[in-house]
Amino acid sequence: MLLNKNILLCVTGGIAVYKAVALVSKLTQAGAQVKVIMTESAMKFVTPLSFQVLSRNDVYYDTFDEKDSRVIAHIDLADWADLVVVAPATANAIGKIANGIADDMVTTTLLATTADVWIAPAMNVHMYENKAVMRNIETLHQDGYRFIEPSEGFLACGYVGKGRLEEPEKIVSLISEHFNSRKKPLPLQGKKVVITAGPTRERIDPVRYVSNFSSGKMGYAMAEAAAALGAETILVSGPVCLAKPQGVKVLDVESAQEMLEAVLSHYGDADIVIKSAAVADYRPAVVQQQKMKKKDQQMALELEKTTDILKTLGERKEGQLLVGFAAETVDAIAYGQSKLEKKNLDYIIVNDVTDPGGGFGSDTNVVTLLSKNGTHKPFEAMAKPMLAKKLLESIMEEEEVMPHDR
Ligand code: CTP
Question: So what's the architecture of 6-181 in CATH?
Answer without folding.
Answer: 3-Layer(aba) Sandwich (3.40)
